[in-house]
């Protein structure tokens, strides 16, 4: 099963999504018998790559936020002891 195939949510996979949707339109019966399987596999791989990229970006942002929070706490501790 794949997530909803909206192009604005998955810009990295837009071309494959269009091909996959067109395959389903071109082969309304064949899609149930593996006609679009190759595109589905490519789409799944693309979604995995996109998710990994987003996960990495979120991790980097969380590291920066954690560093800022640590610096703020350290600064607050120093000013409260004075």
UniProtKB/TrEMBL annotation:
UniProt entry tagged with the keyword Disulfide bond: yes
Keyword terms of this UniProt record: Disulfide bond, Mitochondrion
Listed PROSITE patterns: CHCH (PS51808)
CC annotations in GO: mitochondrion
UniProt main location, coarse: mitochondrion
Taxonomy, superkingdom: Eukaryota
Family as reported in the entry's similarity comment: Belongs to the CMC family.
Stated name of the protein: COX assembly mitochondrial protein
Protein location: Mitochondrion
């Amino acid at each position: 099963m794949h997530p909803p195939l909206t192009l604005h949510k998955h810009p990295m996979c837009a071309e494959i999504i269009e091909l996959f949707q067109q395959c389903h339109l071109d082969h309304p019966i064949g899609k149930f018998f593996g006609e679009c399987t190759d595109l589905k596999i490519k789409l799944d791989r693309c979604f995995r790559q996109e998710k990994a990229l987003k996960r990495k970006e979120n991790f980097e942002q969380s590291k920066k936020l954690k560093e800022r929070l640590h610096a703020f706490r350290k600064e607050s501790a120093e000013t409260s002891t004075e």
